[in-house]
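WARN retry 2 of 3 for item q-0093 after timeout on previous attempt; input resubmitted unchanged.
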Amino acid sequence: MTPSRDAIVATAGETIARGSRSFATASRLFARPVRERAWLLYAWCRACDDLADGQDHGMGAIAVDDPEARLEAIRLGTGAALAGEWVGDARFDALRFFVAETQVPHALVWDVVGGFALDAAGWRPAAEADLDRYCYHVAGAVGRLMALAMGVKPEQEDALDRATDLGIAFQLANIARDLAEDDRAGRCYLPAAWLAETGIAPGAVLADPTALAGLARRLADRAATYAASGRAGVPALGFRSAWAVLAAADIYGGIAVKVAAAGEHGWERRVATSRVEKLGWILRAFAAAATRKHHFPPTPRDGLWTRPR
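OK item q-0093 returned
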């Protein structure tokens, strides 16, 4: 007997609660239909990420010895879900419901899988533009999918680009927070050009904590630039969706700021935000969402990565 949608949603809710307290908190602000779709999408993303990195709900990434086999499993499960088939894994079956309910382009889903393909191939960014492209695949495309799930129309290209920007900002914050963990797993998402400028050798990013702290600040500044652009897209959203998005932006932005502020000590323990901090950002986001039409005037996206049309 196949599980019901309610059962899949419940599993997805448990997945986001375990995998990301920040996103779980912000997702509660969505109206119920959007909230459930956010959970469904997150569950699939979490399943792919855990499979690719040998993690458990985002924790304990390791250097896997069979990356291509893991990538093929992601492709097979994703392809089956997109075809409307039951996968037998609730987190992949969550994608089946998400796509059926939102009618999002399958190409965007495959864009996300493209990020896992880059990791499986041992890809490394050479310059900032490469880093931005990677962040698009693993998070910016997810932002685009969520914007469509929130009611943004496919022809609203600027709003979709802003959602992409916010996803990229989230991933840049993730990279800053996880520099030490990624290094232990044999990965480095810092552009080779940045490493060369600071004299840090690939594979030895922890050898110079002072220089690494400077690179973390650089990541945080870039995340802030993308987040500012992303916020300019919230006037296209309804109040509840705008509230949730702005809260998520502040919560995740707070992670990047904390890593940068910690300097050389930014990786002694995993950076997180407190309940009190989250509550403060949620309240601030409420006020900003209520005045979003005036609070976030159109701003140019000069110099930011843009998905090819």
